[in-house]
Design a protein that fits this description.
Largest interface: A-B, 32 and 31 residues
Number of helices of chain B: 8
Strand content of chain A: under 5%
Order of helices and strands of chain A: HHHHHHH
Distance between the termini of chain A: 37 Å
Largest sheet of chain A: none
Order of helices and strands of chain B: HHHHHHHH
Number of strands of chain A: 0
Shape of chain A: globular
Radius of gyration of chain A: 22 Å
Number of strands of chain B: 0
Number of domains of chain A: 1
Oligomer: heterodimer
Strand content of chain B: under 5%
Chain lengths: 240, 197
C-alpha cells in the first residue's frame, strides 16, 4: 500500500503534464471561438469529477445511515471536501470562458450554471455543518443533510428546466458535436484530473483516519488519567 | 417577530420605489424573501424552549413516536408563519399598490404549499442546528440552499399570477412535488436526527 501512493503520484504528475501539453499544443483551435475554448479541458473534467464525488458522497451517506460504519462517514466527508474544490474550479472557469464568448459572466436562468451553483451551496453548507457540530452526532446529521441535498438536485434541475438554457449542449450523450481529436484530449484531461482527485481523496482519507485514531487515543488517555469509576459517563455526555 | 416582519416590509418599501407595472414584476420576489426572513426567525425558536430543563431528553426517552413530535412542531410553525404572512401580505398590497391581473385564487395554494415547504424543512433543520455551536446562524445556512427550488417556485408562481402573463400551474405542481418529497424525507430521517448521539 505504501509503495502504491508514490507510484500513483508520479503517474498523476505525468498525466497532468501530458494533458496540459495536449490541451495547449496538440488540440486543434476552435473555428469559432479561437483559443479561448481550451479552458474546456479544465472546466468539463472538473465538472465530471465533482459530480462523481458528490455522487460518492450520497452513496457513502446512505451507507452510513444503514450500517453506521466509520469508513463510510470518512468517505462521505472526503468526497464532499474534494468535490467542493472541483466544483469551485468549475464555477470559476465557467465565467472566465463565458465573458469573451457569450459577452456575459453569468446567465442567471441557465439550467446547468444554476444547478451547479446550488450544488456547490448545498455541499458548502454540508461542510459548514460538519465543522460546527461536535462529537459523534456530526456524522449522523451530516449523512441526513447529504440525503436532503441529493433529493434537492433533481428538483433544482426541473425548476430551472422551465427557463431557456444558454449553456452549450453536453459533449457526451447530448446533441452537441465535437472534433474527435478534441474529445480525445478532453478524455485524457479527465483521466488526469480523476487521478489527481483520487490521490487527494486518498491522502485526505488517511489523514482523517489518523486524526480520529489520535482523538480516540486522547479520549482513552484522559479517561485512564481521570477518575476511572465514573469515567464512562462523562464521555457520552461531552459528545452531546 | 411581527415587528421584525413589519420592518422588513418597510425597508423593502424604501429600498424599491417602483411604478405599478414594475412592482407586479418584483413583488413576488420581495414578498417571499420577507416571508423567508420572518420564517427563519420563527423557526429558530422551534426547539429553543425544549432545551431548558432538558425537555428534549425527556422526549427522547418517551415512548411517543418521534414523527408525532415532528409533525406537531411543523404544524405549529405552519400556523404561526401563516398568521405572520396573512398580516404581512396586506402591507405589501398597500405599499406597492398591487392589483392582481391573473387568477388571484391561485395565490392561496402557492402560499400554503410554499409555507409548508419552508416550514417542514425549517423544523427539521432547526432540530439539526440545535446540536451545533452557533445554532442561530446555522439554520439559514442549512435551510436556504435546500430551499432554492421551493423559493424559485413560490417567486415565479406568485409573479405569474400577479402579472397574468403565463399560467402558474407548473410552479404549483413543483411546490407540491417538493412538499411531498421533503415531508417524506423529514419523516423518514427525523427519528435518526432526534436520537443522534
Amino acid at each position: 500500500m505504501k509503495r502504491v501512493f508514490p507510484i500513483l503520484s508520479i503517474i498523476t504528475a505525468v498525466l497532468l503534464a501530458y494533458a496540459l501539453y495536449e490541451a495547449l499544443v496538440v488540440a486543434p483551435t476552435d473555428a469559432l471561438q479561437g483559443d479561448v475554448y481550451r479552458i474546456i479541458y479544465y472546466h468539463v473534467p472538473s465538472a465530471w469529477t465533482a459530480f462523481l464525488l458528490f455522487f460518492i458522497n450520497f452513496g457513502a451517506s446512505i451507507a452510513y445511515l444503514i450500517w453506521r460504519k466509520q469508513k463510510a462517514d470518512i468517505l462521505a466527508l472526503v468526497s464532499a471536501e474534494v468535490g467542493v474544490v472541483f466544483c469551485t474550479v468549475v464555477l470559476v472557469t465557467g465565467p472566465l470562458w463565458a465573458r469573451p464568448v457569450w459577452g456575459i459572466w453569468w446567465a442567471p436562468g441557465d439550467i446547468r450554471l444554476t444547478s451547479t451553483l446550488v450544488l456547490w451551496l448545498i455541499y458548502v453548507s454540508y461542510l459548514v455543518l460538519r465543522r460546527f457540530s461536535s462529537g459523534s452526532q456530526t456524522q449522523m446529521l451530516a449523512a441526513a443533510l447529504a440525503v436532503f441535498g441529493a433529493l434537492d438536485v433533481p428538483l433544482v434541475y426541473f425548476s430551472i428546466w422551465f427557463f431557456r438554457t444558454q449553456h452549450p449542449q453536453p459533449v457526451i450523450g447530448g446533441g452537441g458535436s465535437m472534433d474527435p481529436r478534441m474529445l480525445h484530449v478532453l478524455l485524457i484531461s479527465w483521466l488526469a484530473w480523476l487521478c489527481f482527485g483520487f490521490l487527494v481523496c486518498w491522502s485526505r482519507y488517511r489523514l482523517e483516519v489518523l486524526h480520529r485514531e489520535v482523538e480516540e487515543a486522547h479520549a482513552m488517555q484522559s479517561l485512564a488519567g481521570g477518575t476511572p469509576a465514573k469515567a464512562s459517563l462523562p464521555l457520552n455526555r461531552s459528545s452531546r | 417577530m411581527l415587528f421584525f416582519s413589519l420592518l422588513v416590509v418597510v425597508i423593502f418599501a424604501f429600498a424599491f420605489d417602483p411604478l405599478a407595472e414594475e412592482s407586479r414584476q418584483i413583488v413576488g420576489g420581495l414578498i417571499w424573501v420577507a416571508f423567508l426572513f420572518a420564517a427563519v426567525v420563527a423557526l429558530n425558536q422551534t426547539w429553543a424552549r425544549e432545551l431548558r430543563n432538558q425537555v428534549l431528553d425527556a422526549y427522547r426517552v418517551s415512548p411517543a413516536p418521534a414523527n408525532a413530535l415532528f409533525l406537531a412542531k411543523a404544524l405549529g410553525n405552519f400556523i404561526f408563519v401563516s398568521v405572520l404572512e396573512a398580516l404581512m401580505a396586506p402591507l405589501f398590497v398597500v405599499f406597492y399598490n398591487l392589483h392582481v391581473l391573473g387568477p388571484a385564487w391561485q395565490l392561496i395554494p402557492i402560499a400554503i404549499l410554499g409555507t409548508w415547504a419552508l416550514v417542514v424543512n425549517g423544523t427539521f433543520f432547526a432540530a439539526m442546528s440545535l446540536r451545533t455551536r452557533s445554532r442561530e446562524i446555522m439554520l439559514p445556512l442549512l435551510l436556504f440552499p435546500i430551499s432554492i427550488p421551493a423559493v424559485l417556485g413560490m417567486v415565479a408562481g406568485t409573479t405569474a399570477v400577479l402579472t397574468g402573463d403565463n399560467p402558474a400551474h407548473f410552479w404549483i405542481v413543483l411546490l407540491l412535488t417538493y412538499d411531498v418529497v421533503f415531508t417524506t424525507a423529514c419523516l423518514a430521517l427525523f427519528e435518526t436526527v432526534l436520537h443522534a448521539e
